[in-house]
Amino acid sequence: MLDYDEEAERYDALRGGEPRAAAAAEAVLSLVPAPARELLDVACGTGIVTRRFAAARAGLRVTGADLSSTMTRMAVARLPGAVVRADSRRLPFGDARFDAVVSVWLLHLMPGPEDVRAVVAECARVLRPGGVYVTTVHK
Description:
This protein has helices spanning 4-14, 17-29, 50-56, 69-78, 113-126, and strands at residues 38-42, 61-66, 83-85, 98-103, 127-135. It is of the alpha/beta class. The chain has a single domain (4-135), classed as Vaccinia Virus protein VP39 (Rossmann fold, 3-Layer(aba) Sandwich). The protein is globular and about 35 Å long.
């Protein structure tokens, strides 16, 4: 498995950089209902996509969470005060906290089906009733 702390500095460039991030953010945000006010980006990585959610929609408060300390540090630089270090299988947020939860390029990286179930269950737990979970997989 990839060491995300070790890869963080070159992660964006090796995975399509700004053009790929822009396309992903646009596609994901198009599935988030306009009335959403609180969005959580689970496994936000360096924040290259996450910052675009916040910039694209006025009134949308975006929070990022990532397990890697180096990725989290990079994301904090892009979204100061809006990123926490957290395991996507045990999110540090209360129940029904967010209108929308997204996970971009995460589930296919989980080591096994039990981990995928744990992530999806946590995303569902922190969603408000009627909230939307949007996920993507590799490419």
